């Protein structure tokens, strides 16, 4: 029977190919032909394939189940439906070929009303229409290929990123060669991009404590790693849409930041075709360096809005950001001298960074513990210690990027904690949004505590590590180090802990110098950050109201469209701009389409 398939085949090297086929009603008899798969090679062990036609009861097997039996007792099985795609990975092992099978990854909302989205749809939507967050469908979450932990160990950051990203991004949406180009663009070594050839170098500070330096990107913050990639994704998808369309697809990004997200989003999205960026930040509540980085970008497509009073930021909700962050957990793990009892300590505000570690562990990375390091805004500490997730007021601290009262990405973890059950999650979130309270008890709380450790220690360890180990931390990373020390001293003294260094100390130099006092020595500002002081700046002071923000965004988009020949922008949804306190989905995370006729 002829195959009905788009059939993608990519030759990675002489011994490795990736093939994909679409399942159609007349294709159930043979998912793939034996000679096409080349599953038996020379005198190697014979391989056996069993599959059935739709409606067939000959073998007493339910329709749509394909069983692939090779050597051994446990053949791979997939439940297949019409229109689904099977990925067939072949790799030569000696004189014969080993094969593994998986479905194409599709995405759904945590709240259950949106299903079967492609990766592109999930990225460009950011937030689902039911206000849930996108996660892989429960039956299509990928797993590591056989021997991945061995074969990937020596890969460069860029090559490792391609391997991990391709598990979640099917070649039908982004061919592997295109993905390689996107990754290379996002993580290129050089002054204008990454200042370290390894992208995220792992530094040993003392015997059982290492620091993963995530601050070598253009804005000296870990968020560059995700947002540099996201910016190129936006541009890639838009260019492809516009190439085959009479209308011009454009994206307007509206975001809010309490710290580093704004500048990272601006640097990740600036100069991208058909992308316009509006960043909101609380006036007087971000560091001087953070404000200088944002407001010194004078591109016509970049707009900074200083919002009067306080601003609630709902950060890191775009799935592509989480996906990009999964990579560096693997990269750090592979560079450790030992892989026994490995833990990661993560300065945590919106839960996105540590959630990436949770997904890395779910993929198959053998991590012992993830340590949630919080400051005085301790909603996560309270949840993991007592099961109570209660909204409170924001306390302003010396680690402003963690000054968040609600961890927006936490919904994805709650979804997993509840067994990937959208009904359970929706009930939890409905109660939380109406009362500001959510409580988990019993076996679910024990499960959460098994996943995570937690520490509320905020005492500065900056001086101690500068004096004794000649290493400087920013205040956020110092919280992660304090949490790591607490974990090593009181819970697991023989563990190996990796602390995620989320920002360069120069972004918070006054706080660092205050911690060092007379022991500061010759601590100097990084020359790139120092140069920001002399650059011209532009921002717009705006009142804290939905009406004001919406009017500003729409007026500038209309002005752009008038200049370019007409067009329209669909209004910003009220699910995103919430009445009461102004809460906007974070920078680089939510995109609104405009079609220029």
Automatic annotation (TrEMBL):
Cofactor: pyridoxal 5'-phosphate
UniProtKB keywords: Lyase, Membrane, Pyridoxal phosphate, SH3 domain, Transmembrane, Transmembrane helix
Kinase as UniProt keyword: no
SUPFAM superfamilies: SH3-domain (SSF50044), Tryptophan synthase beta subunit-like PLP-dependent enzymes (SSF53686)
Classification via InterPro entries: SH3-like_dom_sf, SH3_domain, Thr_synth_N, Thr_synth_N_sf, Threonine_Synthase, TrpB-like_PALP_sf
Keyword field contains Magnesium: no
Any GO BP annotation: threonine biosynthetic process
Coiled coil: none
CDD domains associated with the record: SH3 (cd00174), Thr-synth_2 (cd01560)
Transmembrane feature ranges: 576-595
Domain of life according to the entry: Eukaryota
Pfam families the UniProt entry points to: SH3_1, THR4_C, Thr_synth_N
Gene Ontology MF terms in the entry: threonine synthase activity
Domain SH3: 59-124
PANTHER family: THREONINE SYNTHASE FAMILY MEMBER, THREONINE SYNTHASE-LIKE 2
Family to which the UniProt record says this protein belongs: Belongs to the threonine synthase family.
Name of the molecule in the record: SH3 domain-containing protein
Lineage of source species: Eukaryota, Sar, Stramenopiles, Oomycota, Saprolegniomycetes
């Amino acid at each position: 029977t002829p195959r009905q398939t788009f059939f993608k085949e990519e030759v990675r090297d002489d011994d490795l190919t990736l093939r994909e086929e679409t399942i159609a009603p007349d294709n159930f008899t043979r998912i793939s032909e034996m000679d096409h798969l080349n599953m038996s090679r020379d005198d190697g062990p014979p391989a056996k394939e069993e599959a059935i036609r739709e409606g067939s009861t000959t073998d007493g097997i339910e329709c749509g189940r394909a069983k692939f039996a090779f050597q051994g007792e446990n053949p791979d099985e997939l439940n297949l439906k019409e229109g689904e795609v099977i990925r067939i990975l072949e790799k030569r092992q000696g004189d014969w070929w080993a094969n593994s099978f998986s479905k194409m990854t599709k995405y759904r909302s945590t709240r259950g009303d949106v299903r079967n989205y492609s990766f592109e749809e999930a990225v460009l939507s950011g937030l689902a229409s039911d206000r849930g967050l996108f996660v892989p469908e429960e039956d299509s979450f990928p797993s590591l290929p056989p021997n991945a932990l061995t074969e990937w160990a020596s890969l460069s950051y860029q090559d490792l990123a391609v391997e991990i990203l391709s598990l979640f991004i099917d070649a039908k949406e982004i061919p592997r060669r295109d993905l390689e180009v996107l990754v290379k663009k996002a993580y290129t070594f050089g002054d204008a991009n990454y200042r370290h050839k390894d992208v995220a170098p792992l530094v040993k500070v003392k015997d059982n404590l290492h620091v993963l330096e995530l601050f070598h990107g253009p804005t000296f913050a870990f968020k560059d790693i995700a947002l540099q990639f996201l910016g190129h994704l936006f541009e890639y998808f838009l260019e492809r849409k516009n190439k085959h369309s009479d209308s011009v697809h454009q994206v307007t990004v509206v975001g809010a930041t309490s710290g580093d997200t704004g500048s990272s989003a601006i640097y990740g999205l600036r100069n991208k075709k058909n992308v316009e960026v509006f960043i909101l930040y609380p006036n007087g509540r971000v560091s001087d360096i953070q404000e200088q980085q944002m407001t010194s970008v004078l591109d016509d497509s970049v707009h900074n809005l200083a919002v009067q009073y306080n601003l609630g930021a709902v950060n890191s909700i775009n799935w592509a950001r989480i996906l990009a962050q999964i990579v560096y957990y693997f990269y750090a793990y592979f560079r450790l001298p030992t892989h026994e009892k490995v833990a990661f300590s993560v300065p945590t505000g919106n839960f996105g960074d540590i959630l990436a570690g949770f997904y890395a562990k779910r993929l198959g990375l053998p991590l012992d513990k993830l340590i949630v390091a919080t400051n005085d805004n301790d909603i996560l500490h309270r949840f993991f210690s007592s099961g109570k997730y209660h909204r409170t007021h924001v306390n302003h601290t010396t680690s402003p990027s963690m000054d968040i009262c609600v961890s927006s990405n936490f919904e994805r973890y709650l979804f997993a904690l509840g067994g990937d059950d959208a009904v359970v999650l929706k009930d939890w979130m409905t109660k939380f949004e109406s009362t500001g309270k959510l409580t988990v008890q019993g076996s679910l709380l024990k499960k959460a505590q098994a996943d995570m450790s937690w520490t509320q220690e905020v005492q500065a360890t900056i001086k101690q590590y500068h004096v004794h180990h000649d290493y400087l931390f920013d205040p956020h990373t110092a919280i992660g180090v304090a949490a790591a020390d607490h974990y090593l001293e009181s819970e697991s003294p023989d563990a190996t802990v990796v602390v995620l260094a989320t920002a360069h100390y120069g972004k918070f130099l006054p706080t660092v110098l205050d911690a060092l006092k007379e022991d500061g020595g010759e601590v100097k500002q990084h020359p790139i950050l120092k140069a920001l002081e002399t650059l011209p700046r532009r921002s717009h002071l705006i009142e804290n109201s939905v009406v004001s923000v919406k009017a500003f965004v729409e007026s500038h988009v209309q002005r752009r469209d008038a200049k370019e020949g007409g067009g329209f922008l669909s209004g910003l949804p009220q699910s995103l701009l919430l009445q009461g306190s102004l809460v906007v989905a974070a920078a680089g995370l939510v995109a609104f389409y405009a079609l220029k006729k």
